[in-house]
Every structure is written in C-alpha cells, then in structure tokens.
Amino acid sequence: MHYIDLHNHILPAIDDGPRTMEQSVDLARALVSVGFNTVVATPHTCEGKPAPAVILKRLNRLQAELDHRSIALKVLPGAEQHIEPYTLELLREGKILTLNNTRYLLLELPMFQPLPAYTEKLIYSLTAEGYCPVIPHPERTLDLQSDYRLIYRLHKAGAIYQVTWGALTGLLGPAVRKTAYTMLEANLCHLFSTDAHDADSPLLGINKAAAVLEDYLGPGSAQTLLIKRPRALLADQELDLPVAAKPKKSAKKKYPLLKMRRSITGH
Ligand SMILES: [Fe+2]
C-alpha cells in the first residue's frame, strides 16, 4: 500500500520545517519508511510569500536530491496558505500555489485567535470561483473546538476538512481528540495528513493511526482516506464525499486511543 500525504513541511529552509537539505532528506526517508510514496510539500505562505517560484525552485532541488539518492518519494507542489482578506485576489494573480495546481487550496485558519469575521464569506467566494478550500487541522482551532455548528456551517459554505492523523491517536491532547472523533462521526473528516515537520515527528505513526481508523469506521476506510481520495484530489477530480451530519456535542463511541497513543509515542 502506498500512501499519499497532502500536507507536510518537507522543503528545506523555507518555513518551520527542516532547516537543511539533509534534514529534508531525513524526513523523506521517514515518510517512505512508513509507506508514503507521494507527498505534497505545503510550506506556510502568507501575504504572497514565499512566492510560488521560490517554492518550486526549492522543491525541484529536493526532488533532484531524492532522485540522486534513490529515495522513492514524489514531491508535488503546494502551500499552506494562512487566511487573509485578499486570498482570492492573490490566487487570481497566481501568487498562491494550490495542491498540485488543482482547485484544492489548503487554507489555514488561526488556531488560537478568533476566526476572522470574513471567514465564511471568503469560503463562499472561493467556492463560487471554482476553488475548494481544504481546511487543515480544524480539530486544533479553538473556535471550531468550541462550536461544532460552525464546523458544519463552513463545510456547507464549501470548505472540506483535513484532519491530522495524530489527532485520532491522542497525540495532540484530549480536546483535539474529542473534536476529531466528533467530526469523524458526522462525516466531516474528509482527508487526513501528517503535517510532519521533521523526521522524528510522532505524527508519522501513520500505520497505527490507519488501524485506529479501520477499527472505528470499518474495513477499507483507511484505503479510502489515505490513498483513493487523495489520489482523486491530486487529479483535480470532484471528491465523492459522504453527506455530512450536524455534529453532536461529543463523539458517541468510546475512543480506541490510550493504548495506541503509547505505541505511537513510545512512552
Ligand atoms: Fe502545516
């Protein structure tokens, strides 16, 4: 099974990911060792920086290095764009990279500050223009943790959600875990990613997380979420998503987590 990671920080010296090419190569090796063969590099971008040309140049250098060392990982272009009032204008001007040049834009919301008042309107505008905003780690955004109706509303406005695998296994704390499972039960976890920043990240414990998902949603779900759906996204296809329900106040089933957490973190 070859997994696809739609969100990570693998490029060297461009954001809070690896500082050197060697560290990027280490992260690539780690991703391959847990089963990935394709990743989208999604460095943080804000106010049009770093520019797409800078990202692509860095990506080409990394890919050449991986090829030279026979590390079987394909790295595709992307960005994790912080929400800004003029995100749509920057997209129109070609100043933001979408995921592999598709309609899918990784649009990051603030985690600890209130969501900007224009958030829902921007999602509508992006959708009307043919883009599909993909919101990374919604389970870590305080405003969404405290208001599940808002999670549902932003989805109805056109956004889809990409949850961090580590949220399922409790690596990111109980509040994050609870939100992730509540979203999972409401069919609001559309995609998953590692959001890995370094080779030692416990977030790379993907196989354990996939097992948790299979256990919770049933056989075949990990394949859909780790391979089939990301593959369709990278081909710029419309995603076949289950109908979302309004999330309940909390997940109903018991989280299959504490044992998993120990096995992923090793302590
Ligand atoms: Fe990220």
Cofactors and ligands present? fe (ii) ion
Strand/helix succession: EHEEHEEHEHEHHEHHEHHH
**Arithmetic mean of pLDDT:** 91
Helix count equals 11
Gyration radius, rounded = 17 Å
Tell the overall outline. globular
Percent of residues in helices: 40-55%
CATH fold naming of the domain at 81-265: TIM Barrel
CATH superfamily of the domain at 81-265: Metal-dependent hydrolases
Number of strands: 9
SSE-based structural type: alpha/beta
Task: Describe the secondary structure blueprint for this structure.
Layout: E1 3-8, H1 21-33, E2 36-41, E3 44-45, H2 52-68, E4 74-76, E5 80-82, H3 87-92, E6 104-108, H4 119-128, E7 132-136, H5 142-145, H6 148-156, E8 160-164, H7 165-168, H8 174-185, E9 191-193, H9 206-217, H10 221-234, H11 258-265
Parallel strand pairs: 1-2, 2-4, 3-5, 5-6, 6-7, 7-8, 8-9
Helix pairs in contact: 9-10
Structure description:
The protein has 267 residues and is α/β, with parallel strands linked by helices. The chain has a domain at 81-265: TIM Barrel, CATH 3.20.20. The chain contains eleven helices and nine strands. It has a six-stranded parallel β-sheet. A three-stranded parallel β-sheet has the order 1-2-4. It is globular and about 50 Å long. Bound molecules: fe (ii) ion. Fe (ii) ion binds next to loops.
What's the gist of this structure?
The chain contains eleven helices and nine strands. It has 267 residues and is an alpha/beta fold. Strand 5, helix 3 and strand 6 form a beta-alpha-beta unit.
